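Fold it.
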Amino acid sequence: MGLRAAHGRTLWLCLFAVLAASAVACSCAGAALPSYSNCVAIEGPFTSATCHHLGPPDTWAVLPFEFGPEHPNTSFEAHAMKDDVRVETTSLTAITCQGGRSDGHFAGSKEQQSVFLSFTGCRLGTHKCASAGQGPGKIVTSPLQGVLGYLAGKGTGAPTVGLSLSAETGPLLEATCAGVGVRLTGAVVGTVTQDIDFINKISTESFVQSAGVQEFTSFEGGAPGEQELSAEIDMGGGYQPAGPAGLQLSERVQWPMLAEIEA
């Protein structure tokens, strides 16, 4: 190889390194944290299962998710990790379900859209529950939208990241159990783990409640209760307010690509 060719190749390698470093820096600056990011190959294929172990830094970068028709692979699915799925209010015996799953789409650097939670084997006491149009024991939410936020530790090296889910329109969930109507409105907030500042293909979302009161009802810095889940009950005379409600659900999310939540 001649001196000029070798010099030219060196310049190109340097340029790749600068672009990769710039891309990593811009991934944090380009979107408010916490935000979704994924591995992008700059030169050649990946040679390892995790982006952080991919050899020379001029061959890969962690970049914000890209969206639109040219990037269609933005869907995800999740499955409940435990049989203990329940919807509980402070004034009604809990609706317990034997399983659950969800699916949806990424809609931005920190947003999800068209998220559906579906639960099976649902009962209120001995009575099966169901959403309109579903078979006995199956409850399905309305289309939901999700947004990431900090629950604690913003600006520290170990923040707690959360996900808030709320209905795109109307109530979050409606079901009937032996003639008793149950409707949930507002938002439900849970914690996200396993992919915080760590490239992974899975993430865990945990929504925790006790006696109808959700563990988190706002993001860090927000007013307590501003993202509270509320219940309405219809015993035959129309829906009436029934106080706070809680959702108990732990699910493992399967991402469509190597990804992380930068926090």
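The first strand starts at residue 35 and ends at 41.
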